[in-house]
Amino acid sequence: MMTFLALAASWAARQASEPSLMERYVQGLKEVDASKFLVLSAIIFSLGMGGVLIRRNIIVIFMSVELMLSAANLNFIAFARYWQTQGGLYAYNGHVMTIFVIVVAAAEAALGLGLLLALYRNRETIAADEINLLKW
Amino acid sequence: MYLVALVPFFPLLGFIVNGLFAKRLGFSEKVIGAIACAMVAASFVCSAAAVYEFSRHARDNKVQAAAKQREAELQARILGQGVAYDAKTDTKREAPEHKSDDHKEGAHEVVATPYVVTLFEWMPGGTLRLTLGASAGQTAEFSVKWAYQLDQLSGLYILFVTFVAFFIHLFAIGYMHGDPSFHRFFAYLNLFMFMMLNLVLGANFLMTFVGWEGVGLASYLLIGYYLKKPEAGTAAKKAFVMNRVGDFGLMLAMMATFAVFGTLDYADVMAMAKALPQEPFGLAALSFTTGTLTVIALLIFLGAAGKSAQIPLYTWLPDAMAGPTPVSALIHAATMVTAGVYLVARCNPLFQRAPTAMLTVAVIGIATAFVAATIGITQTDIKKALAYSTVSQLGYMFVGCGVGAFVAGVFHVVTHAFFKAQLFLGSGSVIHGGSPSGHQQEMTYYGNFRKYMPITFATMMLSLFAICGIIPFAGFFSKDEILAKTLHTPVFSHEVGLALYALGFLTAGVTAFYMTRLMCLTFFGKERFLEGPDFQEGHSEDHGDGHHAPASKDFHPHESPLVMTLPLMVLGAFAVVAGFAGVSEELTGGAFPNYVHHWLAPVMDATLYPEKPVAGVNWTEWLLAGASVVWALVMMGLAYFLYVIRPELPEKLAQTLRPLYTLSYRKWFWDEFIDVYLVGAFKKLSLGAWGVDFVVDSIVNLFAWLARASSVIFRTVQTGLMQNYALVMALGIFLFIAGMGYPLFKELFMPTDRPSPPPTPQTSRAAQP
């Protein structure tokens, strides 16, 4: 009984001294640092990579690639913001890079879709596992 | 004089326009013909303007002095007295100021002043070490430029080539009328012109070689122009292959030339060659140590023999008559085949230093002249007879070159271009109008055409007199000069000269005989055109127009339209008057200038065999000339007697002299000889090569098989599925990052239990404060 009380007291004491989950969440929102973005970026990137690796439809693969690019963009922005808070000298490099990536991604999308159209006209399919002529 | 760079450009333009656009844009025959003719005409105008300007330029004292200075420098270099030669500084050099005494000393001697237009550097090479001849061990810059050189020789050539070609183009408009691929024909003709002008105007051996191969190509395309005729294709291949044999010699000659002189530019090579001593005569000269120039000259002559159809490479030319007649006139009589003579004349300083090569040229030339003339006697195909006549006349030109009379050889090229082009065009006119199909070439089905084709007949008679050497027609002056120079050759002993002269004299008579025979069979005697195969039921010859029904017996041969007869008349007129440009001064005693001789003198080397001044009228020359005229007239009369007055006699003669007749009719069995001894031997050789091939191939195949067998497992990695590749790539990147990143991660975030080592910069980042 005493043991239980002691445990309860210590729990209560810890509850009182440490912020609650909700409090920590709110706290986290208040001081958003780079790591949050990095984690989110990693998650998006992984989702994208998973899509590229397992989906059959090339259009979806394409979308997954875009997802990976977005993740990279997020990474750039996050670091740019971080360097800004640190008083970095070239704080806008990341932003510029992101614009670059968006432009290149747009071009790549146009080109890729064109290729896809041509592919579909020739092979009547856009399933990635049916396009396997380039082998031994 | 920059116009000279435009001269080859116009035909190239014509080739591009007619070849690429004429069919697509649906040009009519008139437009195509007008384009082709206009381009050649423009070329001619440019040539004339450039040559006129050049003739004034060449007389300029400053230019002369600069050329002499340069020649002296080059000669010092080849004799090993100068410093290493640098091609780059040479070509751009300003005219050096000349010393006045130097100028006075050589004031009377005129040197060649080639005018070179460099368009771009074509083959920049490194610095190479020369290996042959006097300058062995020196270095030279290998640099070939796309450059056109205008001098007296190339100037003369471009003038008559473009002039004759213009009229042949004009003739072709009429002759090729109605042909389904009219534009192709004219595109080829213009391509040929471009290449020919490249050949003549090229400022170095390689430029000439481009043209050399180019005219070979154009010739191939045009001989095989009638795609449906199998013999045309065969003849085209034969011409190409035989020319390749010659080209091989020319290529070797170029390599040796560079190894000796360190440059391929004509002007430099010839200037340097002038300083070299004459090489020994005989078999001893046939090596690179004692007879460098002899070997080079012989190799050049091999090329020339291929292009100019000399023994042993002459049989392609008569077969080339499978092409359309204007082609025969343009390529196989007037221009391309004279390229060999051009090259020999161009390299005259080399040849003069190689008496062995000179003798080879002369002997081959006279042998070809004689053999071809004897073959010409029995040919029944009008174009083949003319082709053998061309071969024979080319032989004369080489005799001229071989005995040191390069000017006479080139002059014969010019006069021959006029009268032989005229004869071929005349034969084209006869073929065109002589049968319903317009393709009958057998003289057996001609006869008495002078009634139907008066203009063709009259103009061809002019050329007949020209080729037979009747005074005062063009051929007389050129042929007679060659014969006279042969008799008095400074290069060989008197006996050799006499032997060459005797054969040449004999050949002149044979020429007169077979040419008159050709004219008699065509224009005189009984009308035989109704016996031709066109009038037979179901004649098998396909003439390309697809009609096989026998033609109506009302047919009469007809004269050609003006577009065809005008070239006949103009060229016929030149066959009469062209000779006066080069009247031998031995005949006139200098009263009438020998224009051609004076014009060409600067490019002909006179250091070894200086010109003897003309001392009045030489009556011996007149005697010789009179003898050859009488001889020609006698043979012409004999031919007239045999083929017109007593037409049954030739048949009997052929019966009596059966072996001789067969020898002539079968062309001295040269084709058979090549077939059995060269082609046959080659086939046997290739059988052995096949065995070697099999063994070598087996070894190579074994290794290939081993590699293939061992790849059975590993190649399955290539699934062809891109997602597999992506997965492997992702895994690779993951491993890479993990491998690289883990030590860093450990250092940064996993503190070790061990006490930290003393903080030195080398240990680790974790230890840093």
Keywords:
A: 136 residues; mainly alpha; Helix Hairpins; 2 domains; 5 helices; B: 769 residues; two-stranded antiparallel sheet; 29 helices; 4% strand
Describe this structure in words.
- The complex is a heterodimer of chains A (136) and B (769).
- With 136 residues, chain A is mainly alpha-helical.
- In chain A, 78% of the residues lie in helices and 0% in strands.
- The mean pLDDT of chain A is 85.
- The longest helix of chain B is centred in the last third of the chain and has 41 residues, at 670-710.
- The relative contact order of chain B is 0.07.
- Chain A binds chain B through residues 49, 52-54, 61, 128-129, 131-136, and chain B through 715-716, 718-723, 726-727, 730.
What's the multimeric state? heterodimer
Quote the distance from N terminus to C terminus of chain B.
83 Å
Q: Which bin fits the share of residues in helices of chain B?
A: 55-70%
Q: Which strand order spans the largest sheet of chain B, edge to edge or round the barrel?
A: 1-2
Q: How many helical elements of chain A? A: 5
Sheet of most strands of chain B: 2 strands, antiparallel
| Percent helix range of chain A | over 70%
Unreliable parts of chain B: 82-108
Q: What is the CATH architecture term of the largest domain in chain A?
A: Orthogonal Bundle
* Helix/strand order of chain A, N-terminal first: HHHHH
What's the β-strand tally of chain A?
0
Low-confidence stretches of chain A: none
Topology (SSEs and partners):
The complex is a heterodimer of chains A (136) and B (769).
Chain A: H1 2-17, H2 21-30, H3 34-54, H4 58-85, H5 93-123
Chain B: H1 9-21, H2 29-59, H3 61-78, H4 87-91, H5 100-105, E1 115-129, E2 139-150, H6 152-175, H7 182-201, H8 205-223, H9 230-261, H10 266-273, H11 292-307, H12 316-319, H13 325-334, H14 339-346, H15 348-352, H16 355-378, H17 382-402, H18 406-434, H19 454-468, H20 474-487, H21 494-523, H22 562-577, H23 585-588, H24 595-600, H25 619-645, H26 649-656, H27 658-665, H28 670-710, H29 722-749
Antiparallel strand pairs in B: 1-2
